[in-house]
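Below is how a single chain appears once it has passed through the pipeline. First comes the sequence as given, then the structure the pipeline wrote out for it. We keep one example in the README because the format questions we get most often are answered faster by looking than by reading.
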Amino acid sequence: MGTSKTIGLEADIQQYLIDHSIPRTGVHTALVEATENAVGNMAIMQIPEEQGAFMTLLAKMTAPEIAVEVGTFTGYSALCIAQGLPTHGKLIACDISDDYTSLAKPFWEEAGVAEKIDLRIGPAIDTLRALPDDEAVGLAFIDADKESYRDYYEELLKRLEHGGLIVVDNVLLFGTVTQPSHDSAVKAMKEFNRFVAADDRVDVSMINVADGLSLIRKR
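Resulting structure:
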């Protein structure tokens, strides 16, 4: 794989984690390679292998009938989540790019999860607002533009089952969240992290997986 975005982890330890987690299949490997060939350095937007295994496990543990992903890119995270869903589970995958997501489709088919993934192209906030208002979402994953995290979070939280889980990616943002910055994404990420930590509607644990994940459980 290309440049790692896993913070503070030596390559040999990262590989050890991968080797002792849910194994990556040939489909995973082929999708990673196709992404790197198609987009070059932008492939770093794809979640790393150890995070993929973690997302599959979370989907198995929460067993949601409905899961939502905000930010699909070339489909690796959607593949991992869908592989952990129960038999009748569905993943609503939100992305604005038909070009990137079209790369994912043959790999979803090959892995046998294409029927579980409902890909919706367009601004994610519009897709989320169009979802039913009932609390039916069991698992959500946010991995998109940082300035909109708070909006995505609010729309998902109101539709999340009690005890349901929102997983938020890049909460450490390559370690920049501890540094002074005028960058809009960094400022938005810092504010989002502060807000969630004080939000009495949820319980949250921020963990050092990949570029930082917050696991947010609705009370």
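The longest strand covers residues 160-169.

See the next section for the split statistics.
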